[in-house]
Amino acid sequence: MNRLPEPMNRPGTRRASLTLTIAALASAVAALTAVLTGLTTWQTAAHHTEQRERDRLTRQATLLSQLPGLAEAIVNGGQVLAGANGLQIAVIGPDGTVTGSATPAIDTASKAALSAGHPVSTTGILGGQSVLLVGQPASRGGAVVLTEPYSVVTNDTNQVRRSALLPLLLGMLGGALAGALLARRIARPLVTAARIAHRLADGERGVPAPVEGPREAADIGHALNVLDQTLTRSENRQRDFLLSVSHELRTPLTALQGYAEALADGLIEPEQLPDVGRTLAGETRRLDRFLGDLLDLARLEADDFRLDIAPTDLTAVVTEAAAFWAGPCAGQDVELRLEQPARPAVVQTDAFRVRQLIDGLVRNALRATPSGAPLVIAIRDTARGGAELQIRDGGPGLSDDDVRVAFDAGALHARYRDTRPVGSGLGLAIVHRLTGRLGGTITVEGHGPEGGACFTITLPLTPDRP
């Protein structure tokens, strides 16, 4: 069996594997997340560190503003209250005098706000460098001012930023590792499914696909198992059909070859020549009819199969078909009945193809209908618009197993060619596919009202696909 063609790729291109693609995408997402987190941390670290230092200075200034004799201690002790990290202090007295090492950093606006009893949190310049400046009004008048070099904030910010680098790197590596594991888990069932699909394409059958993993991967495995079973059934049917075709071709060819050799060897008496000629002509017609059915079946599969869709009165088509088949039915002592509505049943369809459907089903039914039994051609309107055509007979009917394979090419022919009159074995397959081309449906019941098979064709008011 030929292998299915490989996907078309551009010359010189090579497709990346799904595992590498997912792993790369996961790594890129992890890296992007780390970069965005790092940028956010980088931008907010300075703000949070500065705010933290201001809150600490505010608490200290509030505590100091509540101590008695603070101004005298600063005046007498100089910078005894100066703390670590370059902390400096100044006191604004109730009379507006300013004392302490942080005095140069206090500007006029800050002094006025503090003298008016409002806290201050700002920046200033002390000793030629930027400082944080926080002031709190004292409970007995005046205020306390604390300053701290801004470099303290910068150092703490850099420390926070450095401490965040390692978690960010670990997060990025963890994301890449998780992406690789996820990619492997996702790709494994797909890789397995691809291998099984290639084995099926190479003609191997009975290859079970695992139904596991994520739901989508399990669906692929289930679909491959269904495909395997469907291919097996289809190939078995094709094999049986080819065997049936070979048998049907061999029978007339054997007769033709035998009579031809007998004529060549002079074994046919002159008075037998007319009978031999009629036999050869009959076998030739049989072979021609069989080949014609094969061609019809092939044409129905073609994309350019032509249909002439037009408003069609099915009652007129059925009446014409009944008039044609009245003679053959009478010749076999079969009672032909016609059931049709009082008013026309008009649908958009191809009248020629509908007649072809009727002829195929009536021909099939007439072979199976015994002498004295009825054969019915019926037409009726459907509830949803459109019309139904029925061909019913009084023959032996079909079993439930026959109904399941009735429209498979050669299936019923292979079962009944030794017990019932049969045709080429392709008639019902042609009817089924032609009905589909007309946008209709066909069903079969093993035993209808007359006892034999009942075929029902439903034609829509307007076909979906002309």
State the gist of this model.
By secondary structure, the protein is an alpha+beta fold. The chain is built from eleven helices and twelve strands.
Main beta-sheet strand count, sense and barrel state: 5 strands, antiparallel
Q: Could you name the ranges where pLDDT drops below 50 across 5 or more consecutive residues?
A: 1-12, 75-82
Number of helices: 11
What is the radius of gyration? 49 Å
How is this structure best described in words?
- The protein is an alpha+beta fold.
- It is built from eleven helices and twelve strands.
- The chain has helices at 18-65, 70-77, 108-115, 150-201, 215-264, 273-300, 314-331, 351-368, 400-404, 411-416, 427-437, and strands at residues 88-92, 98-100, 120-126, 129-137, 143-149, 310-313, 335-339, 346-349, 374-381, 387-393, 441-445, 454-459.
- The strands form three sheets. Strands 2-1-5-4-3 form a five-stranded antiparallel β-sheet, with helices on both faces.
- The longest helix is centred in the middle third of the chain and has 52 residues, at 150-201.
- The two termini are 35 Å apart.
- Residues 1-12 and 75-82 have low confidence and may be disordered.
